[in-house]
Design goal:
The protein has about 300 residues and is α/β, with parallel strands linked by helices. The chain folds into two domains: about 160 residues, Aspartate/ornithine carbamoyltransferase (Rossmann fold); about 140 residues, Rossmann fold, CATH 3.40.50. The protein has eleven helices and eleven strands. The strands form three sheets. The protein has a five-stranded parallel β-sheet with strand order 9-8-7-10-11, covered by helices on one side. A four-stranded parallel β-sheet has the order 4-3-5-6, with helices on both faces. β7, α6 and β8 form a beta-alpha-beta unit. The longest helix is centred in the C-terminal third of the chain and has 24 residues. The chain is globular and about 55 Å long. Belongs to the aspartate/ornithine carbamoyltransferase superfamily. ATCase family. Pathway: Pyrimidine metabolism; UMP biosynthesis via de novo pathway; (S)-dihydroorotate from bicarbonate: step 2/3. Heterododecamer (2C3:3R2) of six catalytic PyrB chains organized as two trimers (C3), and six regulatory PyrI chains organized as three dimers (R2). Keywords: Pyrimidine biosynthesis, Transferase.
């Protein structure tokens, strides 16, 4: 348990399984404190961070940048398109270089699942690793901003009925969220095409039809259909997907009055969620994006705290 002087202290943030429930709640509470405008703890050391995104990203990439700017960190620019990656440099050697140059934290998104393992196991790489998404593996900062949004809304996780619907097998969001939400006491349901559901999900919840659960769920979390990972081989049209598995106006009207809609974005409008519902009163999609900045501030602060106490 990495709590030092009452503060979360983490050498790396790469998976949700690596975080204790106390650490998760500590990061949520710190994110909420940042959102309320509480002054950040002074960062005693000069700190350098680099965002290395090898897959396209708007929300995660720019959210980390905003968090870093708010914390007053020194940002070292990195663009994969103009780096030695184009000469065949491996990810390991890229991070070895950044670490040798004095970068303290590398925030990385990469297509390889578990890319971070070799980096955090290296005796030579001294930079801390924050996982901004590894292929279809994990996305811990997205999971934490989702948790912050749910906690901000309900004040607890125990007993909440949470539905995760859509492209489950390709979703790092689903995999990160299902593990921690079950641990925190939520009851999980999965919906969407059967062919996008794997047996590994059985340990966390049950697969149901969207129409079975829409009136009971406290949280309806829709996932983006990741067309880029399907190679255009979806067995249904966008219109059919929306009718069968998406949030239509009719389903929206059947939701509980207190229920909320979530989505990691970008939303395929009129596919996962009807265009008119993306910013509907029950939608928390914009709030998720806002909360992402504050929970990422909490993540970076926790990593810097660990480094200061090495």
């Amino acid at each position: 348990m990495a709590i030092i002087d009452g503060k979360v202290s983490l050498p790396h943030v790469v998976t949700m399984e690596s975080l204790s429930s106390q650490e998760v709640m500590g990061l949520i509470q710190r994110g909420l404190a940042f959102k309320k405008g509480e002054a950040r703890a002074a960062i005693s050391q000069e700190a350098y961070v680099s965002n290395l995104f090898f897959e396209d990203s708007t929300r995660t990439h720019k959210s980390f940048e905003m968090a870093e700017l708010r914390l007053g960190l020194n940002m070292i620019d990195f663009d994969a398109k103009t780096s030695s990656v184009n000469k065949g440099e491996t990810l390991y050697d890229t991070i070895l270089t950044m670490s040798a140059l004095g970068v303290d934290i590398c925030v990385i998104r990469h297509s390889e699942v578990d890319y971070y393992q070799a980096l955090i196991d290296s005796p030579t790489i001294t930079a801390s690793i924050v996982n901004g998404g590894d292929g279809s593996g994990q996305h811990p900062s997205q999971s934490l901003l989702d948790l912050m949004t749910i906690y901000e809304e309900f004040g607890h996780f125990e007993g909440l009925k949470i539905m995760i619907a859509g492209d489950l097998t390709h979703s790092r969001v689903a995999k990160s969220n299902m593990q921690i939400l079950k641990r925190l006491g939520a009851t999980l349901f999965f919906a969407g095409p059967r062919e996008w559901y794997a047996e590994e999900f059985d340990a966390y919840g049950q697969h149901v039809s969207l129409d079975e659960i829409v009136e009971q769920a406290d949280v309806l979390m829709f996932l983006r259909v990741q067309h880029e990972r399907h190679d255009g081989n979806e067995s249904f049209s966008k219109e059919d997907y929306h009718r069968l598995y998406g949030l239509t106006q009719e389903r929206y009207e059947r939701m509980k009055a207190s229920a909320i809609i979530m989505h990691p974005a970008p939303v395929n409008r009129d596919v996962e969620i009807a265009d008119a519902l993306v910013e509907a009163p029950k939608s928390r999609i914009v709030r998720q994006m806002q909360n992402g900045v504050f929970v990422r501030m909490a993540i970076l602060e926790a990593v810097l705290h660990a480094r200061a106490n090495q």
